[in-house]
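Sequence in, structure out.
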Amino acid sequence: MLAVCGGGSNATAIVVILAAILIWLLVAYLVIRTGRDRDEQVLLVALLVISVLLGGGVFFGVQEGFSGSGDDLGKFVLSLLIAGAVGAGIALVIRGRGAVRAFVISSWGALFLTGGIYVLFIAFLGFGTGCLS
């Protein structure tokens, strides 16, 4: 149930945020767990960490968006594309069944900080007591 400017519950918003984090962690764990051997799993964890930092760095590094209007959509897409390109590059190097996993985990990692901002925004405005004036 959506709140009307301050009519929601911050506890509900926090539960939504925690659920989103748990879902993100679960998917990351499942993708890493499907790695063929220990070396591939370590590579996937490293790729996940790099893509979280890379995606967040691109998203938060471009201050005013690409059009100067502060629009975040271009930054969001670029952060996903760059992290996905890194994953695709790793996928080309390893040339095995893990190629798809490398691409998926790098894109998933980029979603952590960039998508997290949107989850926070929606959770506190939709379910919490937040209000835009």
